[in-house]
Amino acid sequence: MFLSPHFFPFFLVVAASSLAASSPDAIGSYTGCAVTCETLAMKFPNQVYLGATNGTDFVASREGFWSTIQGDVSPSCFFQPVSATEVSVALQDVQSTSCQFAVKSGGHYSYTASTIEGGLVIDLVRFDGITLSEDKSSAIVEPGNTWASTYENLQKSGVTIPGGRMFGVGVGGLTLGGGVSWLSNRYGWTCDNVIEFETVLASGEIVTASTTSNPDLYWAFRGGSSNFGIVTKFKFNTFSQDKMWYAKLSYNATENVTANAAFADWGTVQSSKDVSNAAVLSWNAQASGSPVGVAILVHQKTFDNNTHPPVVDKFYDAKPTAIEPANVQRAYPFKLIN
């Protein structure tokens, strides 16, 4: 099984810039945000949605989060830049007013990390470009994409990226947080497959972070989240991938012992025997009755319908109470998983 070579304790991470945080006790000012939003609205009149007007664009932006917790937050405004230069302008403006801000990629956080009450939300939704290299070995993906749009674009050329396991997750947040993929057993975390980051620093300077340019920033971005700058482009390694095998098995409490043994065997033995396979395993509590076990199984190779790869034999031997028929999906079966 692939283990990331650069794992580091998150409590040692110190922000290399003065980017404002979205926590309640972050240093900064909410009062300056009204000024910042009005200034940005004058510079970019069709890209700033003010909370004071509560117009349809503002409401749509506020409701454009996966979590209702984030949707209940009311920023002073949303700013939707279209270039790194425009992001730079916004960062320079917030410095003069001490306005607190948050950055949104796909908005899939369950807590208020990509929005902020009374502050500025830099919404990267318009950064939606995807460019595949001529030799198909790499792709530049902008952070306004979700993994759905990314996969659907790249699958046309028979390649993919080891990215998120759910369609609605944004490229930016998952990549900067590390990123677990169905392909991680073979290729590592999502962040392990970033070749370079185009980044806007707190100063407004636009730089590239790679192994040869700003290598310390490159190291920090791979798991350090959004503490070091605003990434406006990711250059990823790509890999050939056609359709994949997928199945979902369920177990009831009476088979706990057998199913748990299968779950444990996959984690300790089988997952390293065949790096083409991946699984999400859980026991889910029910409002009434016994917990239900679920095994979501994926394999990078394809098999005939209603057959399965040998690496998952023990899941089938554990007497599942329900089997979603094994079949072949597009390169990622995410639409079957929320």
From TrEMBL:
<feature type="domain" description="FAD-binding PCMH-type">
    <location>
        <begin position="71"/>
        <end position="241"/>
    </location>
</feature>
<keyword id="KW-0560">Oxidoreductase</keyword>
<feature type="signal peptide">
    <location>
        <begin position="1"/>
        <end position="21"/>
    </location>
</feature>
<protein>
    <submittedName>
        <fullName>FAD binding domain-containing protein</fullName>
    </submittedName>
</protein>
<keyword id="KW-0285">Flavoprotein</keyword>
<keyword id="KW-0274">FAD</keyword>
<dbReference type="InterPro" id="IPR016169">
    <property type="entry name" value="FAD-bd_PCMH_sub2"/>
</dbReference>
<dbReference type="InterPro" id="IPR006094">
    <property type="entry name" value="Oxid_FAD_bind_N"/>
</dbReference>
<dbReference type="Pfam" id="PF01565">
    <property type="entry name" value="FAD_binding_4"/>
</dbReference>
<dbReference type="GO" id="GO:0016491">
    <property type="term" value="F:oxidoreductase activity"/>
</dbReference>
<keyword id="KW-0732">Signal</keyword>
<comment type="similarity">
    <text>Belongs to the oxygen-dependent FAD-linked oxidoreductase family.</text>
</comment>
<dbReference type="InterPro" id="IPR036318">
    <property type="entry name" value="FAD-bd_PCMH-like_sf"/>
</dbReference>
<dbReference type="InterPro" id="IPR016166">
    <property type="entry name" value="FAD-bd_PCMH"/>
</dbReference>
<dbReference type="GO" id="GO:0071949">
    <property type="term" value="F:FAD binding"/>
</dbReference>
<dbReference type="InterPro" id="IPR050416">
    <property type="entry name" value="FAD-linked_Oxidoreductase"/>
</dbReference>
